[in-house]
Each structure stands twice: as structure tokens, then as C-alpha cells.
Amino acid sequence: MDSEILKIHEAYRKGSLNCSGLIASRIGELEKSNHNSVNYMLSDLAMEMAAEADDRIKSGKELRPLEGIPFGIKDVYMLQGTSSSGSSGILKNYKAPYTATAIVKLLDAGAIPVARENCDCFGHGSSNENSYFGPARNALDKNLVPGGSSGGSAVNVARGFTTFSIGGDTGGSIRQPSGYNKVYGLKPTYGRISRFGLMAYASSTDCVGPISRSLEDIRLLINIMSGKDSRDQTTFKSDAIPDEIFRNDPDLKKIRIGYYRNFIESDNLDENIRNDFIRLIGILKEQGNAVEELEFYDDTILVSAYYVLAMAETASNLARLDGSVYGERVAGESIRDQYALTRSENLTEETRKRIVGGNQVLAHGYAEDIYQKARYLRKMITDSFNRDFRNVGIILSPVTPNTPPLLGSSLKNPMVMYLSDAYTVGFSLGGLPALTAPLGTDTGVQITAEKNGEERILKFAKYLKEIL
After folding, report:
1. What is the mean pLDDT of residues 436-443?
2. Catalytic residue among 74, 105, 182, 459
3. pLDDT bucket at 1, cuts 50 / 70 / 90
4. Do the Cβ atoms of 425 and 431 come closer than 8 Å?
5. Catalytic residue among 173, 194, 226, 410
6. At what angle do helices 349-362 and 335-346 cross, to 10 degrees?
7. CA distance to 209, 224, 313, 454, per residue, from 190 (Å)
8. If pLDDT is split at 50, 70 and 90, which confidence band does 130 have?
């Protein structure tokens, strides 16, 4: 397999590349870029760590798994001593007092953070236009949105500014921008990687995951970040994924593949993406794979259920941002005025909208009719997945209904932005692992397996890459 991480390590060993030079080069590219993919540069920290890495390499010490590898951090993670804003105005001067568990593991493995990356404010968006720092721009066409909320992370990987980036996925925030920028992006099984130190959006679906141009690097990164964490009670111990999974495996053709008919027949799906996906299914059949047509919930039902639950959780999670303890305070004539002014002036319109919506569905008289029904529907969705995975080993689906829209168009029609998550939110509600692979259609293909099925997903992605 092609691993950018291993290629860099080989260059370090041969002496054809030094870490300080590589990091300085990547920093220079980021500083010159006009993609607006970065909120804060970490230049001083990165160069200090690069010098330490060069010393280790020169001394002949064994390279750590990510020794001297430049990476980006979505601006929703704690990194001690650095500005950690969540792409919001209210936290623009906030310094993280500790470091997120997943980031600690990467640093311990030798990785070097070069930038905190632009994203939708607190993850609220699917276009990266809802940011205090302005919109990031698509890696392939700066007139298009990069997707969200991890837009800056996907752009930096696609442009080669970072070898990998760490995004956050709540309802598709890694997978959708990965599709828009034609890179790999993995949302792991819920609980496989600790969320400690990740600014909470919807705690019951938030996931930490990697974005990379290499499947092998996705495997390396998932192994490093996975594991039980006493500070996140949803985490569990998982087995490492061995590198042998990328060797030729004749048993892959024995895996039964499923896809959802109603996804493909949806009026919301772009005709070219539909035709490309149908062509992909045809190629799989020609290769001797068994393919089964499945039935699932309507995509608009999935989006509605997801946003009811996500808005309810974000209203609760962001209640702490009132200027009293966290964030920029705006003075008012009373404490009530202070809260109102602080939140109105320092939160984006989209974030305010989601807080208001969340409080509405949790309010007396609405919770039973709206919120509890969404929770019940979530259980039904999970049960449906359990039934499907008794018959198939992999589920394939488009990543997004449409190709990336023009900058500004999603702000004029928010429903278009919400519906761009139509094919990702269901798997989030089910807690399932899902990978965007830049194959098959203009925005890639989504590969999903049952819980803790990341190994099967990566093996299948490699197989797809070989036959397409």
C-alpha cells in the first residue's frame, strides 16, 4: 500500500529529507495559501518539535510511528496552551488548558501539529461557511465550498499541506468534506476513539477520525488513536488492525454487499452521481460479488430525526457559553442582557439557530411530540441496521446527494446544506463505522460495516481501488 507516512520515514532514514526542512516547507505553503483553511498557525511549536525529531533521527533512535509527520487539527480540539476557538467568536481568545486524548496519542507517537484548521462554528454546518474566520475554499475549485464541518482539514490534506488531519464527525463532518475534496475520511465506530478534549456538538454521535490521502495511513492512525479512556465512559478496547489486511484476499468476493434502493431512487440525488453509483454496482457484480438491494428510511426522515436530536444536544452542550466562565463577555444592563448580548454577538447565525431549535424541541409540550419521537426513530434505525448486517457484510452508498455547491448558495438555502448530510446521518445515529473513499462517483463512495468493522471497511476500500 502507498503510505505517505512511511515514505517520509524512509526519506528521513536515507538522509534525503530532514524534519525541520519538511515542517518549514509545509508551514510556508499554509501561510501562502488562499484557501482560508487555517484559523491559527502553530509554527513555533512545530519547528521546536521538528528540531527534536531531527536530533532523534541523527542519534539513530528508532523512529516512533509518526515521527516528524506534519498534521492538522480541526479547531474543535483542546491542545494545551494554544488558541482553541471552535471557529467561533466567543472563544477566539480562549487558550486550551489541556490536550485532547486523541491528540496526546498522536503527539506521543511523534506527530507534529502545524495548524489549527478552519471549520463550521462548533461543527454547525456542512459547508464550512459558518465560521467566525470566514469560509474555507474547496481544494479543487476555490469557487466551491469545501464541505463541512471539517472543511479546512480536508482541504489541507487534499492540497498536501498536511500529511493527515484530525477531523470530527457528528453527522457526516469528516465524510462529506472528504468526498468534496477527493480524499479518504473515516468516521470510526462510536466509542472506539476517546472524545475527551473534543468540543461537544451532539455527544451521542460525535466521533474523532482521520483524513488522509492514503488508506494505509488511515489504518496507522486509527490504531494509534483507538482505546479505552477513563475520561470518556463511552470508549471501549479494540484490537489493532494489522497491515496484512491489504494483501490480496480471495475471500473478499464472498462478502455480500448491500445498498439502499431508496437512496439511489431519491429525487434529491444528482443524476450523474446516481449513474456512477449504478455503474459501480454493475462492476461489482461483473467481478462475481453478490449484491443485495436493501430498504431503508427515506433520506428526509433521516435528516429530520438527526437534526432534532443534534440540536437538542447542542443546546445543552453550549449552555455553558454565556460569558460568565467561558468566552468573550459583552456587558449589559442586567445579567439577562449580558447573556443575551454575549451569545447574540459572538455566536454565528447557524449556531444560534441550532440552540433555539434545540431548546424548542426540549420544551414542555414539544419534547414528547418531537424529541421523544426522534429518539424512538433512532432505535428503529439501529434495529434496521442490525437486521441488514445479518445478510450483508458491507453497505455501499453515495457520500452526498450532490457535488459541492458554489460558495454562498448554501447560506441562501439552508435546506440544501442540511440535505447534503442525507446519506451520512443514518450511520451516525447507528454508531457505525463509515469511510469515504474517493472512488466511483464525483464525491466518492461511502463504505459502511457493522460496529467495530473498520478492518473490513479498509480491506474493501482497497479492493474497490483495484477494480475501478
Report:
1. 98
2. 74
3. low
4. no
5. 173
6. 130
7. 10, 16, 16, 11
8. very high
The active-site residue, picked from 149, 212, 266, 410, is: 149
How far is 297 from 300, CA to CA, in rounded Å?
A: 8
Is residue 388 a contact partner of residue 258, using CB atoms and an 8 Å limit? yes
Confidence of residue 325 (pLDDT cuts 50, 70, 90): confident
The count of other CB atoms within 10 Å of the CB of residue 108 is: 12
The dihedral through the CA atoms of 427, 429, 433, 436 has a sign that is positive
CA 12 – CA 5 distance, rounded (Å):
11
| Pairing of the two strands 207-212 and 164-169 | antiparallel
**Residue 149 annotated in active site:** yes
Share above pLDDT 70 across residues of the chain, in percent, rounded to a whole number = 100
Question: 366-370, long-range: CB within 8 Å, 24+ apart, which pairs?
Answer: 370/308
- Is the per-residue pLDDT at 327 higher than 90? no
Question: What does the block give as the cell for 430?
Answer: 447507528
Find out whether 197 and 208 touch, Cβ atoms under 8 Å. no
CA–CA gap between residue 408 and residue 421 (Å, rounded): 18
Contacts of 194 (CB under 8 A, 6+ apart): 100, 101, 102, 208, 225, 227, 229, 231, 232, 235
Q: In which element (H, E) is residue 71 found?
A: strand 70-74
418-430 per-position pLDDT tens digit: 989 999 999 999 9
- What confidence score (pLDDT) does residue 92 get? 92
Tell me the CA end-to-end span of the chain in Å, nearest whole number. 16
**Gap between the Cα atoms of 135 and 105, Å rounded:** 30
How far apart (Å, rounded) are the C-alpha atoms in residues 58 and 18? 10
Nearest by Cα to 174 from 209, 205, 139: 209
pTM summary value? 0.96
Q: What is the pLDDT of residues 156-181, one digit of tens each?
A: 999 999 999 999 999 999 999 999 99
Write down all domains in the chain, each with its CATH number in brackets.
4-244 (3.90.1300.10), 251-298+375-434+442-454 (no CATH), 302-369 (no CATH)
254 labelled catalytic: no
Q: What is the pLDDT of residue 415?
A: 83
pLDDT digits (tens, 9 = 90+) for 21-42: 999 999 999 999 999 999 999 9
